[in-house]
Write a structure and sequence with these properties.
2 strands; 57% helix; single chain; mainly alpha
């Protein structure tokens, strides 16, 4: 997550030093990937999907290297498959089968950020958009009518 700021500085200033300092590995953390291509450090905690997505998407924006956006989309789809529930919301983790409002906010922000930069013709875009729409539709059902929840 820390790398997002120097990547933004690289975009704004065009100075190589920020890019060199912050650039993440386009294949994840550099750890050996799993057979399905995910980083071996994938934990399947929903808050990770804001951090992974923010860093990888920002690296894509700073470099134009599609491996970064591909990494973000691959991880997001894996999290959608593993954690999104039939009601559209997400469990915190596979071993924590509870809804966590802040965590659902993290993944919603991650999906929105990814969709802002994911090319229209990207092979995983439709799946990410489907998960995002399913979540947003569900959130409408759970939303309180007022800020404090009173009727």
């Amino acid at each position: 997550m820390f790398g997002v700021v120097p990547l933004e500085l690289s975009i704004e200033t065009k100075e190589q030093k920020y890019l060199t300092w912050a650039r993440p590995s386009p294949t994840g953390s550099g750890a050996s990937p799993t057979p399905d291509g995910l980083t071996s450090e994938t934990r399947f905690w929903i808050d990770d999907m804001y951090m992974i997505t923010s860093l990888q998407v920002q690296a894509y924006r700073a470099t134009g290297d599609a491996r970064y956006i591909d990494r973000a989309a691959l991880e997001m789809v894996a999290y959608l498959e593993k954690l999104q529930q039939p009601n559209g919301l997400f469990y915190h983790a596979p071993d924590v089968p509870f809804f966590w409002g802040a965590g659902d906010g993290w993944i919603a922000a991650g999906m929105a950020e990814l969709l802002r930069s994911l090319p229209q013709d990207h092979p995983r875009r439709a799946r990410v958009l489907e998960g995002y729409r399913k979540m947003m539709q569900s959130l409408l059902q759970f939303q309180a009518r007022t800020a404090c929840g009173a009727n």
